[in-house]
Amino acid sequence: MAITVVGSVAFDSVSTPSGSYERQLAGAATYFSLAASYFTDVRVVAVVGEDFTAKEQAVFDARGIDTRGIEHASGKSFFWAGSYHDNLNEAKTLQTDLNVFGAFAPKIPEAYQDSQFLFLANIDPVLQKRVRDAMPQVKLVGGDTMNYWINDHRENLLKTLKGVDILLINDTETKLLAENKNPVKAAHDVLGLGPKALVVKHGEYGATAFFGSSIFAKDKHAKHHPFRAPALPLAEVVDPTGAGDSFAGGFFGYIASQPELTPSVFRRAMFYGGVMGSFAVERFGTERMQQLSREEIESRFALFRELTHLD
Questions:
Q1: Backbone CA torsion sign across 47, 77, 103, 163
Q2: What is the mean pLDDT of residues 231-237?
Q3: Distance from C-alpha of 72 to C-alpha of 236, rounded to nearest angstrom
Q4: Residue 68: predicted pLDDT
Q5: Is the pLDDT of residue 218 over 90?
Q6: Mean pLDDT, the chain, as a whole number?
Q7: In order of start, what are the domains of the chain with their CATH numbers?
């Protein structure tokens, strides 16, 4: 079943203790779609500039990702430069150029209207809501946001959250959105804003799911306790950029590949999210996400299971 993702297709320049690279293909929608493409069909809604060439298009084509929703505009694509030398868990932004992304007005191709899944990557909540409203037929909506939208566009974000089924954000964003420093209380406060489930990403420490009104069709009145999925201990992290978006792609992609959403599917999806996030950080940019095999994914999934197996 197909996922439509709306977000950024961009270029990044990044420096880490392992090295650096200049102007490589990146963006939330890019990482998400590459990760999700190993599980299901993916369709992208984004905007790029004239610097997006056949080379970048080939990355999407190689994974069978539908790019009819990518608008080509005059000018340059969204660009971000950052450094991880101070802290691998938090990027220091050196430069942000919105370029054509500054005037992004998502257009949903007619061919995308039969998508059963929608993911609203980290963009202006006004645009997120516009896309959500334009696709009322989808059966499950995932979403992401960040500190900037929480702090400066809170009112619009709160409107958007009412149409999101599963919100995926990190610890800091959860506390900021809830205006509560207690992580558990903050999670439940966020669920009160609209999402039926919240996945809190902890970076190198995994992720925790919290549940509000049941998201599972067969047990709408059942109460589900939080579920914690670990992260795989890695000897070296080359480039953390895109790890969270790759987690979201693996998580949502696996859900979309299953006939129905059950508690078991949700838990396995969190493991697959961790698998894809762990692969993303092994190389610079999207390089590792372009070169995976399903056999590698399943092998690492087995490692995740071993981490949590109790005789």
A1: positive
A2: 88
A3: 37
A4: 98
A5: no
A6: 94
A7: 3-308 (3.40.1190.20)
